[in-house]
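Record format v2
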Amino acid sequence: MIPSREVARAINYHREEALVVSTSAALREWHQVSERRDLDVDLTDCMDRAPAVGLGLSLAQPGRRILVLDCDATLRTDLAGLATIGEVAPENLVHFVLEDADHTSTDGTPIPGLNRIDFEGMARSAGYAHACRFDKLEELLIGMEEIMRRPGPVLVAVKVIPEAEQSPFPGRSMASGWAEVRSSLAEQSHGTA
Amino acid sequence: MTTEVYDSILHPASLVAELKKNNVSHVVWLPDSETNFLYNMMMEEPTIDLIPVCREGETMAVAAGLWVGGANPVVLIQNTGVFEAGDSIRGLCLDLNQPLVMLVGYRGWTRRGLTPDSAGRFIEHILHAWGINYYLVETDDDADRISIAFDESQRLNRPVAVLIGTEFGA
């Protein structure tokens, strides 16, 4: 298993100008390491909707990579989202799913059947262009470059172990964070027009 | 008589013309039997992309992502889908001040006011509860209310519903 903070660091290292949609326990780690908060779309509410928000962004911003940092527990509550992404098939979307053995999102309460769900297999059958799984940090670090280069949609399942002490959610509100991203994209759009 | 019946429905062309007039970029929708005719016309419209989803709650989230990314989407669902999408309407439309026009098929609508369909009985109460304003569109003559909804949602940064109280004509 890979420390979840290390997964966030690896993604941050490779993101470049990508927009990042993160949710739940993934967001708790992500905002600690992200160096481009102006391009981060946080979901501290409606946490199961990260893949759908990412899909919308991928269609509105086809020239950018869109990275969705999802969790097993949140994805489980809206598995239909895999089929929606598979059908629309945005090439610029990478969907990371952090599989958390400690069930951080439910404060340790186990979710029945969660460990039996094969997100990688589901993504493939739903129409994702590629799906893979990592449970060793070295393999993830080696694989990241190819993941970021592949035509999507790509699903990357990662077995993680959370930090000993749970990080808090970001201090900025969801509404102000989204407004910041909108503003940042509009400025960049005007700058290139 | 035939002409009167033909004229008293909403034709897809009227609705699509309103979407074009308001520069809609994407229609996020759950395919259903009521909007078949609209589907065919939208597919032929090069300026509008259709994004199909599996569940109505996803429509609000996909639209939210499109909006953050600078696009101008609408959602097209049945009133039953508004019930299903409730939490996303709350958390992603209302709380984020998203200007979004929701085109909502008004299942159970009848001018007589008597309907056995609970979807028809509850929808306006639900919209009232959330403070979401709405406009009823039954025929081509009402289609300009869609532009009123666009104007209101942009001006107030809020979702506004358009209740389509008829099946589409061919």
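Chain B has a mean pLDDT of 90.
Helices of chain B lie at 2-7, 12-21, 36-43, 56-68, 79-84, 86-94, 118-130, 145-156.
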